[in-house]
Amino acid sequence: MEPDPDDWREAGGVLNPASGRGPNGRLYLLPRLVAAGNVSRVGLAEVLCSDDGVPVGVSRAGVVLEPTERFEHGAHSAGVEDPRTTWLAELGLYAMTYVAFGPLGPRLALAVSSDLRSWRRLGPALFDYEPALGVDLNLYPNKDAVFFPEAVPGPAGEPCLALLHRPMWDLSWIRPGETDVLPVGLADARPGIWVSFVPLRQVRADIRNLARLGSSDPVALPVHPWEALKIGAGPPPIRVEEGWLLLHHGVSGEIAPGWEVQQRVHYAAGAMVLDPTDVRRVLARSPEPILEPQTDAETHGVAPNVVFPTAIESTAAGTFVFYGMADSRIGVARLRHS
Asked: Which residues sit opposite 226 in a β-bridge?
C-alpha cells in the first residue's frame, strides 16, 4: 500500500497497520495515515488477494479514528498513531491500542469495536502504582502496545488479559534536564518489552477496566547488536506448539534527541517465544533478524532503513506479516514457521 497523492490525509505516508476480519469475513488493514505536519489518523482498507489467497493490494474504505480528543493533541503535536488490533474472542470485540500523541508526547490509549469501523474509546491506558517498582508508569512515554488474543495466567494464576508495551525511561523528552528514572531492580535504561495484566472477570464486568492494568513486569530487553538501542512488540502474539510466538522489532544506529523522525537508525524484525504458563518468561529468541531492510522501499523514505511489523494474518495461502516500510509505505511478507 502506497500513499494516495490525491488524498491530503496521506501526504506524509501510509504505514504500520493493524488488521482484522470484518463481520463479512473479509480481511482489512487499519493503516496509520500521516498528513502534513505529522498528524496521523487510522484508516481502513480491505485487503485484495489473488485467487490463491496471496495479498496483492488494497481497497480504501475511509478513516475510522481521528485525533479528536484533547489528550490526542498538543501545542506542537497531534495524532493517533501505530494502531494494533487484537480480536478478543472471550469478549467478542476487537481491542485497539494506539499512540495518542498529546501534550506530553506519546501515550498509550485504547478503543474497542465489533466491526473494525466504529470504535469506542476507553481513554488512555492507566497503570496501577506498584510500590515494588518505585515509579509511576503513567509518567513515562509509552509505545508498541498489543494484547494477547486470549486470557493467559496472571502472576497470581488468575485468567487475565495481558498487554505488551514499551515504556521509555528518559524523562528529558518531556522536561528538559530530567534524566532516566528507572524502576527498582532495572539497571538497563534501554527501552524494552514489558507486560501488564487485568483480570478477565473485571473486564467482563466493565469493559472500561481493559484500560486499567497492573502487575507490570519486564519481559525482554535488548540483547543482540541489531537491537542495541531498543526493542518493541510487533503484531499480536500467535499461539504455536511451543508457546506464544511474538514478532518484535529491534533498533540499532544512532537516535537523535526529541520526537523528530529519526534518520540514522536501522529497524529490523526478530522473533521470540514466550512461555504459555508465564508470558513474562522468554523461552527462545532469534539471534539474527528474520526481516531487515533490503528493498528500495525499505531503505529509502521518510525514515530510511526501517521494517516495522505490526499485523499478522492467515489466508488460504499461508501466514502473512504486514509491516511499515521506511515510515512511508506498507509491505507484506510470508511467514514460514515449523
From this structure: none
